[in-house]
């Protein structure tokens, strides 16, 4: 693809969610234990990009007063549009090393986000990504069981499968899937029957069936030979686009001779006998370091990263 770096995004673009009308939300400025940040003292931001424009640029969204911007540390995001056209943006936040989910209403007229509420729960321990199911309900992945930094690394190196998926609504909160090494990206099929979960340390994508009681049951697993981060869905084809880390440990280095590479995979027909896996973008880190997400809108592709820059591509 024909790609260019996006001006103004210098400190990460960990997750990207694109509305059906082509407006893309980009979370930026993640500080994650063990992974470097290019601006450790700068609060996180949410950018907006209108992919209908010929030469789209990223604009920082203003966040309403009353929200603690200083500790804003945005991670996975998801959008929900209700029947009136109101756009809700769910943002995983890690203020002071904790996990919360922040619910915002997007006001397009003045490029702003109005903070509606902060969601905290004992089951939301170490949230990585979410997928909205309604205006105040979602599935969330916990990438670790422990939220303590040392225990989190111990859990990773011991290979414990204590990571899970939680369903949250104001009425009910419960674990709906468990046994992951580290559940990361999560998304939903266009027919809303299946939930896809990326297990980053197990190098695979799980297809789960969603039931009326919100429980998830395992359908199949697609094994890949790369670390899978966030999952985006092409609303027209149902293809899954993934930001991947081909050499994941380099994310934890801080070595200019060993930059974390970037890789974007597309999975077609995941439910079929033989899903097609295609590598659509790869870079050794000289242009783009540590790709975590790839989102598509009508032939335009946005590639985001954990702590580095972001790419705008035309396919
Ligand atoms: Ca997401
Ligand atoms: Ca992620």
Counting structural domains, the number is: 1
- The helix tally amounts to 1
CATH topology: Neuraminidase
- Encode the helix/strand succession as letters: EEEEEEEEEEEEHEEEEEEEEEEEEE
Distance between the termini: 5 Å
CATH architecture heading? 6 Propeller
| Widest beta sheet: strand line-up | 6-10-9-8-7
Which residue ranges are poorly predicted, with pLDDT under 50 across at least 5 consecutive positions?
none
Binding site for Ca(2+): 14-15, 77, 128-129, 184, 229-230
Disulfide bonds: 3-313
Glycosylation sites: 230, 284
Pfam family, one: Arylesterase
Architecture overview:
The chain is mainly beta. The chain has one domain (2-314): TolB, C-terminal domain (Neuraminidase), CATH 2.120.10. Helices cover 3% and strands 50% of the residues. The protein has 1 helix and 25 strands. The strands form 6 sheets. The chain has a 5-stranded mixed β-sheet, with no helix packed on it. Strands 1-25-24-23 form a 4-stranded antiparallel β-sheet, with no helix packed on it. Strands 2-3-4-5 form a 4-stranded antiparallel β-sheet, with no helix packed on it. Strand 17 (204-210) and strand 18 (216-223) form a beta hairpin. The mean pLDDT is 95. One calcium ion (CA) binds at residues 15, 17, 76-78, 129, 230.
